[in-house]
Amino acid sequence: QVQLVESGGGLVQPGGSLRLSCAARGFIFSRYAMTWYRQAPGKERELVAGISSTGGLTNYSDSMKGRCTISRDNAKNTIYLQMNSLKPEDTAVYYCYARISRYDYWGQGTQVTVSS
User: Fold this and answer.
1) DSSP secondary structure, the chain, as one string
2) What pLDDT sits at residue 52?
3) pLDDT value at 84 more than 90
């Protein structure tokens, strides 16, 4: 059974940093690309960053490029999202996503709130 479990969200002041984690189980993690999405209140879910199965390729949304880094540890079946210089508009629920054997899998999400 595929499971994606996010953690690391919380309340942070503008300009602050957070590191999100997504622990995966139930599939051969090292074979699949992984993605972070986010959804702000009243808005559609949007891609934040993606990483290839080996970690050699990454991509970022224009809104987060230069302010975040996606990484993975295949030995720990975990991906990370290091976010810096956070802005109030980064407030959202952040989700981990994987497409495995033509099925879409999402974590439960972790709330990130950027506010003073």
Assistant:
1) --EEEEE--EEE-TT--EEEEEEEESS-GGGS-EEEEEE-TTS--EEEEEE-SSS--EEE-TTTTTTEEEEEETTTTEEEEEE-S--GGG-EEEEEEEEETTEEEE---EEEEE--
2) 98
3) yes
